[in-house]
């Protein structure tokens, strides 16, 4: 896997400018390099930003990541569900654009043999909708261009016989005996599915490098330089300084540290949080197909071409553990 430099994306100033800086308590002489845009974080967000910039502008773009390779952060553990059921119309449109990209990934990345493959399973939302609620939500999505169907319990059993159609929550304490009750209505997104997050990340980095971006792993940013009220560049752990008029923070759970380095005070809280994802083998006796499925407490989807199942919780109480992204 090539993690080397791109094609001339980063140039040293001429004549080379030298600057003495302190990095982790040691004073080092370092060459000041220049770029038009620095993107910090080479995960799915950073690589996507860099690719879109590189294909649209002649700017010198540098992508920096502290990891040894792609998808070592949140990207690699993503469930990568591609769906459009959101409450805000602009977010639905954004999700639709992403869905079209993943469904036409080779065209989107201009790679003849991309690593990522979209799995068009559809997405089933069993959220205890009443029929009226399901119709209202379906109409709202259809008005945005989403293909969606309303299914009752019998409809789900016909299309996905392995899934339970019980709409009655379990009492996890075991105090109240469980009695199954079919849900009234569910929504099915016809064009939803999931992707390979690591493959997608690698493809975007490959495409960005092809367009001239410089991708650097093992390059943790230890300082964000500022002057005259704006960011002027970054400093790396090895003493390298890169001057750039635009720095993009796409560092995921490490973003707060970069904001602090830059003196940026944002009006909302970004908290690194532990999220559990479980992978289990799926018996051949389980009847296929299995769609992306979400109910009031869990979500699930197939994995490894249907040989495994991935699932996790959607409950707020299961996403409340704050963690240090370098030590969890």
Question: TL;DR?
Answer:
This protein is 23% helix and 27% strand.
Polypeptide structure, described:
The strands form 4 sheets. The protein has a 7-stranded mixed β-sheet with strand order 8-9-7-17-18-19-16. Strands 1, 2, 3, 12, 13 and 14 form a 6-stranded mixed β-sheet that branches. A 4-stranded parallel β-sheet has the order 11-5-4-15. The chain has helices at 44-56, 89-103, 105-109, 131-142, 153-159, 197-210, 255-262, and strands spanning 11-12, 18-23, 26-34, 37-40, 61-64, 81-82, 123-129, 148-151, 185-189, 193-194, 214-216, 221-227, 230-236, 241-243, 246-249, 277-281, 292-294, 298-303, 308-313. It has 2 domains: 11-77 and 197-262, FAD/NAD(P)-binding domain (3-Layer(bba) Sandwich); 116-195 and 271-318, D-Amino Acid Oxidase, Chain A, domain 2. Helix 1 (44-56) packs parallel to helix 6. The chain starts with 10 loop residues before the first strand and ends in a 15-residue tail after the last strand. The chain contains 7 helices and 19 strands. It is α/β, with parallel strands linked by helices.
């Amino acid at each position: 896997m090539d993690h080397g430099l791109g094609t001339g994306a980063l140039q040293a100033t001429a004549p080379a400018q030298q600057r003495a800086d302190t990095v982790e308590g040691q004073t080092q002489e370092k060459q000041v390099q220049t770029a038009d845009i620095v993107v910090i974080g080479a995960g799915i967000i950073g690589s996507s930003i860099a690719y879109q910039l590189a294909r649209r502008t002649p700017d010198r773009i540098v992508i920096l990541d502290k990891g040894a390779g792609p998808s070592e952060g949140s990207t690699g553990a993503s469930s990568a569900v591609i769906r459009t059921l959101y409450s805000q119309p602009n977010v639905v449109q954004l999700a639709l654009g992403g869905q079209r990209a993943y469904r036409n990934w080779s065209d989107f990345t201009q790679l003849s043999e991309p690593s990522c493959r979209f799995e068009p399973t559809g997405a089933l939302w069993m959220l205890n909708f009443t029929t009226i609620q399901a119709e209202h939500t379906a109409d709202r999505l259809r008005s945005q261009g989403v293909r969606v169907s309303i299914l009752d319990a019998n409809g789900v059993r016909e299309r996905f016989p392995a899934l339970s159609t019980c709409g009655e929550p379990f009492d996890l304490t075991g105090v109240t005996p469980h009695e199954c009750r079919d849900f009234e209505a569910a929504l099915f997104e016809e064009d939803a599915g999931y992707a390979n997050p690591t493959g997608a990340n690698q493809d975007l980095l490959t495409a960005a490098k092809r367009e001239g971006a410089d991708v650097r792993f093992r390059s943790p940013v230890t300082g964000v330089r500022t002057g005259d009220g704006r960011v002027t560049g970054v400093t790396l752990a090895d003493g390298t300084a890169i001057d750039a008029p635009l720095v993009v923070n796409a560092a995921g759970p490490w973003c707060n540290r970069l904001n602090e380095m830059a003196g940026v005070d944002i009006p909302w809280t970004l908290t690194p949080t532990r999220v559990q994802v479980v992978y289990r083998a799926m018996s051949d006796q389980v009847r296929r197909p299995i769609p992306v499925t979400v109910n009031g407490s869990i979500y699930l989807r197939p994995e490894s071409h249907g040989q495994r199942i991935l699932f996790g919780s959607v409950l707020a109480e299961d996403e409340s553990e704050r963690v240090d992204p370098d030590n969890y």
